[in-house]
Amino acid sequence: MAKRFPAAYYVERILAHDRLGLSRAITLVESTLPSDQELAREIIQQLLPFSGNSVRIGITGVPGVGKSTFIEAFGTFVTREQQKKLAVLAIDPTSQRTGGSILGDKTRMETLAGNKQAYIRPSPAGKSLGGVARSTRESIILCEAAGFEVIFVETVGVGQSETAVHEMVDFFLLLMLAGAGDELQGIKKGIMEMADAVVITKADGQNLQKARAARAEYQSALHLFPRTASGWSPKVAISSALENTGITEVWQTIEAYLETVQNGSYFEQKRQHQNLHWLHESIRQTLLDRFFAKPEVKETLPELEKKVLQGEVSAFAAAEELLKFSN
Amino acid sequence: MAKRFPAAYYVERILAHDRLGLSRAITLVESTLPSDQELAREIIQQLLPFSGNSVRIGITGVPGVGKSTFIEAFGTFVTREQQKKLAVLAIDPTSQRTGGSILGDKTRMETLAGNKQAYIRPSPAGKSLGGVARSTRESIILCEAAGFEVIFVETVGVGQSETAVHEMVDFFLLLMLAGAGDELQGIKKGIMEMADAVVITKADGQNLQKARAARAEYQSALHLFPRTASGWSPKVAISSALENTGITEVWQTIEAYLETVQNGSYFEQKRQHQNLHWLHESIRQTLLDRFFAKPEVKETLPELEKKVLQGEVSAFAAAEELLKFSN
Ligand SMILES: Nc1nc2c(ncn2[C@@H]2O[C@H](COP(=O)(O)OP(=O)(O)OP(=O)(O)O)[C@@H](O)[C@H]2O)c(=O)[nH]1
Ligand SMILES: Nc1nc2c(ncn2[C@@H]2O[C@H](COP(=O)(O)OP(=O)(O)OP(=O)(O)O)[C@@H](O)[C@H]2O)c(=O)[nH]1
Ligand SMILES: [Mg+2]
Ligand SMILES: [Mg+2]
């Protein structure tokens, strides 16, 4: 186990914008040791007043859509052109890759990885979605207290994790491939309707024409979607991360969004709503985890599930049967 | 309190396709009295082997889109032209109208209400979504055992109830108005992507052109959506319930869907998956209800929520604080 310091050490280092202190605090947040968790709680509590001053951007898309390459290009733009300090976090609970998804593809983010204005933190390995969601939420707070002004939260758009990311960011960016065919099979239903912007990736070479056509198609499709209370209507952009095109437009779209939602109470309200969401989500998750960890439940569940599947018992009768073990 | 009979009475009456017996059993299913619930459980358990033989169709759309009028026309077609016995149930937990949403507008369903082949049951009043979802699920079982071959589950597409309906039907029909503008504000994000078919309503008179244009727009938009494992791609139809047009097409679409999904294991798998969903959903709901009913939780929650909203405490720290009361 790595060395531990008193809470004040982490708090001071983070407020002094020190990366080592930040990394060490994130390690605590990700730890499952009760003593680490308590220390983490103390640090978070003290840093909470210094958090909130960033733009939190969710970035999702199916594997291979070009997330890493886009983040490299877009992140470089944000730090170099916009002169903003950027933190990149990842939610990737299904990742088999050790060290998470981000540092795994160093070649695709090498410019950003060597950039003093950028801080890249891979997804913690071997954690449940609930666990990663929690540590990512808390890492956002730590990064903000450490002076990061833009935060990317990356996730692979194939499971429940996009919904979790959607609930922790201000702006939700969906990367899509042109030629919306079988490639899309992987993405979950409902995600498209969550997007504040769609970026058609790899808009270069042979692909450029297809990307332009896709932009038009998506733009008219998004018009049909229900609007949000934000008053914002989702935009579609095309970008080539390799040729560095469309990057400025994506940033301008985010700025336009912020202008729309900060011109009123929506931005703050959304964040407050997200806070409440995580309070309730965290309670829900803990209650369920505890219930399903009970030996009697573990023993009875498979048999009951089988009966439910075979139509021998109704779902509700089975639930009642199991709930006998709840106390 | 109404008279109660032994379980065998309800079971026999329902298997003899008697409506009074069915109605009485549904009343038990909807009752909150523990003795009624136990009786209901017994009836359901005995009828379970006789259930499952219907096509379950969810029908949703914003208020005023024309659900009642469409159900009147479509239901008349199903019973008269297709000669099928039809049950119409409703999930409408937010309804202020006494007697639920369906019988409220008798004028719009008068043909169907007088139709011997059709059975209309309003949404139970004054219940939570969880409660209505449960009683609707169990009513479906009762209706199937009573010989109904087609079941409509209607809901207003403005809350969580569409998701609940989506989890209990084979086919999910979304009614939409042409001129997708502000009218759509009410519908929840993600619902469009759940639809197996979209019907543009009120395609008559001045509206016909707009409806045709909307059909083309939606059809190309739906192509961009992620596909399901079913292999089905969602269809768009236009219909005028007043002029009785497009009704046959909607039925043919449902038949085409059934052909697609029954030609393999998808249909059965989806129902099994739904059963498991309700098992877990029911456990989740009960655990949460019990937790939030605890006096200490009730007392502490508002204060903690306030602190979370004001950013004084992190969502996770607040959750931990509350979870101290969980046992
Ligand atoms: N032509 C072209 N290829 C690109 C572009 N961006 C990414 N690619 C290529 O697409 C492939 C996948 O890119 P990644 O950035 O690794 O995609 P990803 O979404 O991060 O993939 P996962 O990490 O597996 O989820 C790589 O071979 C990239 O070189 C682009 O702008 N143009
Ligand atoms: N022109 C035209 N009007 C229709 C049609 N269907 C429904 N309407 C009218 O639209 C209005 C709303 O219809 P309803 O069927 O009550 O709509 P609903 O979706 O059930 O509404 P709620 O029960 O309030 O959620 C009524 O005035 C209907 O007469 C149609 O096919 N053509
Ligand atoms: Mg990647
Ligand atoms: Mg109605």
N-to-C series of helices and strands of chain A: HHHEHEHEHEHEEHEHHHH
The second-level CATH architecture of the largest domain in chain A is 3-Layer(aba) Sandwich
Biggest interface goes to: A-B, 66 and 66 residues
Q: In percent terms, what proportion of residues of chain A is strand?
A: 5-15%
Distance between the termini of chain A: 36 Å
What oligomerization state is this entry in?
Answer: homodimer
Task: Name the strands of the widest sheet of chain A in spatial order.
Answer: 3-2-4-1-5-6-7
Helix percent of chain A reads 40-55%
EC number (chains A, B): 3.6.5.-
Protein name (chains A, B): Methylmalonyl Co-A mutase-associated GTPase MeaB
Keywords (chains A, B): Hydrolase
Organism (chains A, B): Adhaeribacter soli
Annotation keywords:
homodimer; 327 residues; alpha/beta; Rossmann fold; globular; binds guanosine-5'-triphosphate; binds magnesium ion; GTP binding (chains A, B); hydrolase (chains A, B); EC 3.6.5.- (chains A, B); GTPase activity (chains A, B)
Give the gist of this structure:
The first copy, chain A, has 327 residues and is of the alpha/beta class. In chain A, 49% of the residues lie in helices and 11% in strands. The first copy, chain A, folds into two domains: 51-264, P-loop containing nucleotide triphosphate hydrolases (Rossmann fold), CATH 3.40.50.300; 275-326, no CATH class.
Question: Could you characterize what this model shows?
Answer:
Two copies of one chain form a homodimer. The first copy, chain A, has 327 residues and is of the alpha/beta class. Chain A has two domains: 214 residues, 3-Layer(aba) Sandwich (Rossmann fold); 52 residues, no CATH class. Helix content of chain A is 49%, strand content 11%. Chain A contains twelve helices and seven strands. In chain A, strands 3-2-4-1-5-6-7 form a seven-stranded parallel sheet, sandwiched between helices. In chain A, helix 5 links the parallel strand 2 and strand 3. In chain A, helix 2 packs across helix 3. The longest helix of chain A is centred in the C-terminal third of the chain and has 28 residues. Chain A is globular and about 60 Å long. The two termini of chain A are 36 Å apart. The complex binds guanosine-5'-triphosphate (2 copies) and magnesium ion (MG) (2 copies). The site of one magnesium ion has 4 residues of chain B, from helix 4. Chains A, B: One of its GO terms (cellular component) is cytoplasm. Chains A, B: One of its GO terms (molecular function) is GTPase activity. Chains A, B: This is Methylmalonyl Co-A mutase-associated GTPase MeaB.
